[in-house]
Write a structure and sequence with these properties.
The protein is of the alpha/beta class. Helices cover 41% and strands 13% of the residues. It has one domain (3-142): 3-Layer(aba) Sandwich (Rossmann fold), CATH 3.40.50.2300. It contains 5 helices and 4 strands.
Length: 143
């Protein structure tokens, strides 16, 4: 295993934050992100950029990408933000079943979308993402 895909709705808030965290913790891994309804070509939200910059992670070069079958099936695991996204992704690409999980799967939680909300909402989403990423990284490194 060495390819991971992170998916959210627009690929400008949650998945770029998760991608940045995962890339910083999984040396030698390819970590990409995409959106189910991506704002194609848009940069990450300025609040997301700022919050990750505070952690020493630069996501300023990020540009939103629409998920494709090739992206989904070309990775070892897909992390989504909520149950609905998992369902939709598995309906779009049934071949991915068994490789799609929520970022906060171990906490049995969904990551709320902070899009167009104040920084507090981004901080809350990032906290859930960070905890989920830490658990996934621990599990991946044990494999």
């Amino acid at each position: 295993m060495n390819k991971l895909l992170v998916v959210c709705e627009g690929n400008i808030c949650r998945s770029p934050m998760a991608q940045g965290l995962l890339r910083s913790r999984l040396a030698g891994w390819r970590v990409d992100s995409a959106g189910l309804n991506a704002v194609i070509g848009a940069p990450a939200d300025p609040i997301a950029i700022s919050l990750l910059r505070d952690r020493g992670i630069d996501i300023e070069a990020h540009r939103a990408t629409q998920i494709t079958r090739k992206m989904c099936l070309g990775c070892d695991m897909v992390l989504v933000m909520d149950r609905d996204q998992r369902r939709r992704l598995e309906e779009l690409y049934p071949e991915a079943c068994g490789r799609v999980f929520r970022v906060a799967e171990f906490a049995e939680a969904d990551v709320p979308d902070p899009y167009r909300q104040p920084e507090k909402a981004f901080r809350h989403a990032l906290m859930i993402i960070d905890e989920g990423v830490a658990r996934w990284v621990h599990r991946i490194q044990r494999l």
